[in-house]
Structures are given as C-alpha cells and as structure tokens.
Amino acid sequence: MGSLYRSSSEPAIQDLKVLINDSTLIFPSQQPPDTPIFLSNIDQVLNFHVQTLHFFQSNPDFPPEAAAERLRAALQKVMEAYDFLAGRLRPNPHTGRLEIDPKPAGVGFVLASTEFSLAEVGDLVYPNPAFMQLIVQGLEKFDDQPLCVLQVTSFKCGGFVMGISTNHALVDGISFKHFLENLASQAFDDKPIPTHPCHDRRLLAARSPPQVTFPHPELLKLKTPIGLEETPPIFDCKQEHLDFKIFTLTPSDITSLKSSAAAASSNKKITGFNAVSALIWRCKALSYDCDRDRECTVLYAVDIRSRLRPPLPAAYCGNAVLTAYATATCGELEDGPFYKAVDAVAEGAARMSDEYARSAIDWGEVYKGFPNGEFLISSWWRLGFDEVEYPWGRPKYSCPLVYHRKDIILLFPEVGGVESNGVNVLVALPPKEMERFQSLFLKYLRGD
C-alpha cells in the first residue's frame, strides 16, 4: 500500500563543498545561419530554466575526467544538429516576441568536484538543497547568459553527476530526451546520431488570422506583452512556510487505482497517469478548505505531436505540449465516485484535438496568456531520462532539481526509472493542508 516516502536514516549532507575547477564556453564547429529563429506561442511562455541532474556510478573504464572530456567533445559534435543552443534569447524590437538570436555566444561547460563520495550523498530521490551546487544557478537573471549549461561534478569514489540547465523555451521533455540520446551517442567513438531533430517551429505558428474557437478557461489573459510579463501565477513561489513530503505509489497501488476506476467506468482503458492524477486532484482540492461549492481546476500537460492533423514529426524539437484541465467542485470530488474524477482527467486530455490545440495556440496570439488553474501536475514519470545509454552506462538516477511550490505537484520515478513502474508524488503545502492531504491520500488509496 502507498506510503509516505522515508528518506535515509542518515542526515543529508547540507554542503557538498563543490569546487569549480574549470568553466568555458563551447561553440558549434560551423557558423549557423544568421536568421533569427522563430519561437511558437507555446515556446514564448516558457522563458525559464529547467534543471536536471543525472547521477552516474563509478566505472573503472571511464573515470570522471575521461567521461567529462567525452561529454565536452560530444557536446560540440551534437551542436551540429542543435546549433541554436549556443544562441541567445532576444525580444524582436518590432513585434515584441521572443526569438533566438543564432549568433553563437556559446554553451556553458563547467568542471567541478566534491570531496564526498556518491554513497555519502545518500538518498538521491529525496531532494537535498545541497543539490543546487551541482548545477549552475541564476541564468534567467541576466540578459546574455547561456541558454544551456552543462556541469560535470566528480565524486571521490569515481562517480559523477551531470547537471544540465536549459531554457524551457528551447525544448520540452520529449525533445530534451532526444537531445540526451543524441548527446550520449556522440560520446561513443563511432555511433551515428539516433534522432535528427526537426527544427521547423513554424509548424506550431498561429493561424492568420487567429481563430479562437474554444473558450479556454485553462488560460489566463495578460495585460503585458508576451516575453516581458512578470512571473506567471502558476509558477508563483510565495514566501511562506511549506511542509514538504513525498508519497510513494508502488506498481500494485497504481494497478489497484486503475482497477477501481475501470470497474465502474465505461472507459476501460484507464491509464496510470489519469488514475494517479485523479487521486492527487481529490486530495489537493479537499486539503484547502471545506467550501463544497468551490471549484478546483487541475492542470496537466498533453503532448500534441500525434494529435495534430497532419501530425508533427516525432522528432519535433521545441515545445509541443499544451495544458489540459479538469474542473469539479469540492463537493463533487468528495462525494462522487473515484472513477468520475479519473474520467474527468481523461476527458481533459481527449479534449486536445487538432482544432482545440490550434485554437489554444491562436488564443496565445490574441491574448498573450499563461495556464490558469489551482495547481499543476508536472510529470517526469515516463520521460525516461535514466534509460539513456552512455559509454559508461545508464544513470543511476535522473531527476529535476526540485523547488518547493504549493501550486506545482511533481511526479517522478523511483530509482530504477520507468522499469520500476512506481512513482513518487512530491507535495509542498502549508502544515495544516499537508496534514489533511496526507490523511486523504492514505484514506482514498485504501478505498475508504
């Protein structure tokens, strides 16, 4: 039965004492075209950095210094297919839209070390504030900082961690997975690039004229020009005390949730994501207050590559995800059967047809807005970053660098990745809400 995640009995190291040994910029071997690169309306609203950590155990054939040198060479080689990584984001002075200035200004590459071993770092699943030392910080605070920085930090045991900070305007999770696979391939001596990225972002350009054919309650209008707005509400991180907990769902827990919903629903193809999201939605809504008439809207991303007509290329490089939503009152979530919530999550994803997606993109052209809901479920569960094969093996664990935000709940895999089939649910809430969330989580998981 699902439970509260238990971290190591040993206290986490609070300071990894990371020493920066070298820092440089890497450039494409060939000069890219000098035409500014168009960014879609989806790309436009994702101007912030996403940071991921990829931990590797020691491999006697590839000590950290050798692995780092291979990664440095691979990064330069892979930029033949990703030369825009060395560019910089700029607002177009005529349209106000963000675009990529392709003039090569460099991708950051940092070598670092710590006096600790990977074993001493301890639990990799439970986020440690010291992990922030494993990746370059503060890139979004400056106008002329790299869009991508890779930091290799070696442990004294021979293991190392690869920390990557990438501006989200460049890639979504799927295209970042392709990038990792391509980067890893170039670290081998003779492997070809496995996925040639499609860079035609105009495939997701708004129609002319825009045709907003749906109401889009999941989106919030802005008053400021796109790219120049303040931090969007869904990513707001207010200064307040938050309790932070991880809830673990085993494969049998997920199977039980799916079976419970399928037994009563007409939809017999219940996915693990829909069942887990419905459980979280219920608990989050009812942990807040007791107003039964209050509506709670949950947001979650849907990949639109295969939903468009014609479909996008599977190798589309950019952001090809849109925000789906499900809405219900707290009374409906509390009294209604579980399958109703699962069906509502499924219906939100099914709503994302070609026309709905095009309408949402056109809405962004007209209103310049952001996702709008009570909270967002951000899923890293099935992305499979730790399935990528490097010369020194697969990562022991890959995960996002976690920040505590009460309006974002993260799903990420257990150590062992997708193959483990379990999922961790990371929640940050004020203490009283967390107490209620935990009680409801265990209650609903038991089927009470």
Overall geometry comes to: globular
Q: Give the SSE order as H and E letters.
A: EEHEHEEEHEEHEEHHEEHHHEEEEEH
For the terminal residues, how far apart are their CA atoms? 13 Å
Strand order of the largest sheet: 1-10-17-16-14-11-12
Strand content: 15-25%
CATH architecture of the largest domain, please? 2-Layer Sandwich
Question: How many strands?
Answer: 17
DSSP helix fraction:
25-40%
- Report the radius of gyration as a whole number of Å: 22 Å
- Specify the biggest β-sheet: 7 strands, mixed
CATH class placement of the largest domain? Alpha Beta
Word description of this protein:
With 448 residues, the protein is α+β, with helices and mostly antiparallel strands. 26% of the residues lie in helices and 22% in strands. It has ten helices and 17 strands. It has helices at 41-44, 64-78, 118-121, 173-186, 251-264, 272-288, 330-335, 338-350, 354-367, 431-446, and strands spanning 3-4, 19-26, 49-56, 88-91, 98-101, 107-113, 148-154, 160-167, 219-220, 243-249, 295-303, 321-329, 370-371, 375-379, 397-400, 408-413, 423-429. The strands form four sheets. It has a seven-stranded mixed sheet with strand order 1-10-17-16-14-11-12. Helix 3 (118-121) links the parallel strand 6 (107-113) and strand 7 (148-154). The protein starts with a strand and ends with a helix.
